[in-house]
Amino acid sequence: MPSAGGPTRRAGGPRVLRVKVLLLENIHPVAAEAFRRAGLEVDTRSGSLAGSELIEALEGVSLLGIRSNTNISAETLDAGKDLLAVGCFCIGTNQVDLVAAAERGIAVFNAPFSNTRSVVELVLGEIIALARRLTEKTGRMHEGIWDKSAKGSHEIRGRTLGIVGYGNIGTQLSNMAEAVGLRVIFYDTADRLAHGNARRVGSLAELLAEADVVSLHVDGRPGNAGLFGAEQFAAMKDRAIFINASRGMVVDYDVLRENVLSGRIAGAAIDVFPVEPKAQGDTFESPLRGLDNVILTPHVGGSTLEAQEEIGHFVSTKLLGFVLGGGTALSVNLPEVAPPVPPGAYRMGYLHSSEPGVLANLNRMLADAGANVIGQALSTRGERGYVVTDTDRPIPDGVLTELNRAPQTVWLRFWEPSV
């Protein structure tokens, strides 16, 4: 594996890169182990950080690992002067200003698939628990009350599950739900292939009118804020069940409370909230506290040991691929380029403004300097282009100086062959 070289920004030449990693929010130890095996310095923290504490902690940090409770703003990115990449050890990335990160050339990675199974198992278990009203049964048993009654308790077989958002989690939920006898319908604004016997419906209103259970699995894009409110709850079937394991800002929980208290909604399970406590043991406030047949969980849909280990492995691998070889596979904000490293190659990663002629100019300079290109890959995304070039010899200082002075240059990084 090539050894890492350092970034240059419009001036200066390559330097040796000393990589420090900061991991927040109890990221699985497998990630820290992977970084240490690669020779990187690692600092771990159990909770999230914010404001001046976060800015202070970023001093000298090249790779930052977070989960959902640490917000990374443009101001934070500016404070992290040595920051090369942010790893979101979770599915969502809405806690990071992705546009600001791309403008600054800071790559952002996440784990879009690693905790899918864990979320699906939680949701399926909640559907059964709510249909059988198990929360009330266990609560009364703990109070010493023997309440052996079938009132309000139902099997889920033959009932209709309506899935809103048919992505990675929605489709796997669809498959597992069918296996236990649920009929599945789904609604998604994107063109998604139906799995098994699931049936697409043409609108959210159509889904709500038909579903006995509504489960939300949409992403955190701004357009989904406030997606589910009074109008949508009114459109649901009487005595339906409602589940949200997607994003807290999607649902009006005050309206949900009203519908649960009135009996229109038979039960609900909520794992995500608009405002969530920052640290373990902090006070949790919600209008849904204290309601019968409402399951509240502290954003643990993906929090199984299996999922957290897989996320730790997946995201750390992407971050290491970026810092040790320039790969941006599955980056959520930079162009995706991840070519294999030819044996004995000298590699240069070049992030630049996406403008005509940049690649031609780069190759002209390399040819004039007598550097033979043995591998090259280019991709663009928005206003950024990224090209990884492998040569059979070190790129001459004159070429690097000229590239650094180019107005299109965001950064250059270099990797030499392993000794």
Automatic annotation (TrEMBL):
UniProt keyword list: Amino-acid biosynthesis, NAD, Oxidoreductase
Annotated metabolic or biological route of this protein: Amino-acid biosynthesis
CDD domains according to UniProt: PGDH_3 (cd12176)
InterPro entries: ACT-like_dom_sf, D-2-hydroxyacid_DH, D-isomer_2_OHA_DH_cat_dom, D-isomer_DH_CS1, D-isomer_DH_NAD-bd, NAD(P)-bd_dom_sf
Domain (D-isomer specific 2-hydroxyacid dehydrogenase catalytic) ranges: 21-333
GO terms of molecular function: phosphoglycerate dehydrogenase activity
Taxonomic superkingdom: Bacteria
SUPFAM superfamilies in the cross-refs: ACT-like, Formate/glycerate dehydrogenase catalytic domain-like, NAD(P)-binding Rossmann-fold domains
Pfam families: 2-Hacid_dh, 2-Hacid_dh_C
Family: Belongs to the D-isomer specific 2-hydroxyacid dehydrogenase family.
Name of protein: Phosphoglycerate dehydrogenase
